[in-house]
Amino acid sequence: MFNASLKQLSTQLAEKKISSVELTKAFLQRIEARNTEYNAFITVNEELSLAQAQVADQMIAAGQASQLTGIPIAQKDIFCAKGWLTTCGSKMLSNFVSPYDANVIERFNQIGAVNIGKTNMDEFAMGSSNETSYYGPVRNPWDVEAVPGGSSGGSASAVAARLAPAATGTDTGGSIRQPAALCGISGIKPTYGLVSRYGMIAFASSLDQGGPMAKSAEDLALMLGVMTGFDARDSTSLQRETEDYTRDLEKPLSGLRIGLPKEYFAKGMSKDVECAVEQALDEYRKLGAEMVEVSLPNSQLSIPVYYVLAPAEASSNLSRFDGVRYGHRAKSYGDLNDMYRKSRAEGFGAEVKRRILIGTYVLSHGYYDAYYIKAQKVRRLITQDFVDAFKQCDIMMGPTSPTVAFNIGEKSSDPIQMYLSDIYTSAASLAGLPGMSIPIGFGDKNRPVGLHIIGNYFTEAKMLNVAHQYQLVTDWHQRSPV
Amino acid sequence: MTLSVNDVKRIADLAYIEINEHEAQATLGQLTDIFDLIETMQAVDTSTVEPMSHAQDVVQRLREDKVTESDQRDLYQSVAPQVEAGLYLVPKVIE
Known about the structure:
The complex is a heterodimer of chains A (482) and B (95).
Chain A: H1 6-14, H2 20-38, E1 41-43, H3 46-61, E2 72-76, H4 103-110, E3 114-119, H5 153-160, E4 166-171, H6 177-183, E5 186-189, E6 209-214, H7 217-227, E7 257-261, H8 262-266, H9 271-286, E8 290-294, H10 302-317, H11 336-347, H12 350-363, H13 368-389, E9 395-399, H14 415-419, H15 426-431, E10 435-442, E11 448-455, H16 460-473
Chain B: H1 5-14, H2 21-39, H3 73-77, E1 83-84, E2 87-88
Antiparallel strand pairs in B: 1-2
Helix pairs in contact in B: 1-2
């Protein structure tokens, strides 16, 4: 049951071989038994989960079930869920029981999916190792000495350890793809604007995008179908026809032109990762794909640009945490400004403060043009590189992360080294393109390696097809550490 | 670009985050490293490039000027640190 695909679970529920309540209890028991080891969940609420499972069973009995009805889904703690503690991994929100649902949560509730718990994450999604969480680091189920990646590290760890059949994540510069790679699972960040940001606690609004994390591309396709759709309450939500993301899964790949950005294969990638990526590309050649060398000449600037734009937007977004309407307020303070300063100093962790300070600086008088506007201009150049490269190929591939999972504590005192974990993922984020990671083998210390798949705008169905065909002829996605 | 401890303190002040001398010193070192990395983008000629503020070129949607939300003040104030009679309480700002 714990290794079953979403489709298999759905069939078992539809055929009444198991009820949603039974399924939910089984996962809750598994979480209870194993979460102390991984710290993947911040909040588990048996009462709320089982109430949803009962509703799901009624929906199934009444013939109102859709494919994910009754299936437990782990929700990243960045999504506001009514009645659930929603912390975003921060002391600032350690007392915040959300009075409303995010659009993503509403969508899962509507189809009768069960919220199995809120997953751990880097504080306010700022991090690549899940070490910045106020709730402590998450551990990688493949090796508990290793980080799970971040910021959606709890979701990745939960799926890898089979504590949940699937989970949600969010990705600003790589926060779905990098942890998916490091934990040996599949994850997709869709085209910017497809998943509503309403109720998804904001980090960098022009980059933040929700997406699913699961064992396989087929599972991702089902999850994406639930998560995407227009929402008037998100000003950047796109109005598009509803898509069935499973529609192209079975298509053959013959003639597929896979672009290999030469900059991603030039240097920086460790030997073990390179080896796994080459083997995966060979598998694609066998499936009938052809390789095309492409160039993304400005891609090496994506980290500098990202670390201007994301902190700038974060410093603005996080100004709402002032200890007045919700969140942490300092116990003792003098005047109003002192209350703000102390509440924010106590409520935010070191990495979040660091990014707020960077953002405040680049937006301040005299530096706005030199940093913020400059970064926005280079962002356009990075985006144009992709537009040009996609004239020569249908899809792009490379490593998701330059190395396999590193050890907990290894990079936590060196922000720059940590930031470079997202060297391959941040460019697609800046361009707003969909990106994905799938497991393709193991590297040093038997830790998982991920293949990064970048698609053109709105080609999620194609990307899922490309991933699914690989998963039909390999079994990396079925490997489990437990 | 060279940052000083006073710059760090000034930025922290703008960001409404209390910071002590020790934290300011530690932050200075980290921000200096980060800005060294950021500076690498200055080498690119962007004189003819338009800034890109968003991933999709969409125009801001407008909606009719009508009430769409119901009054949920009590619910929303249930998570506030300090309220009284429907008001958020903060230290006195006017003498």
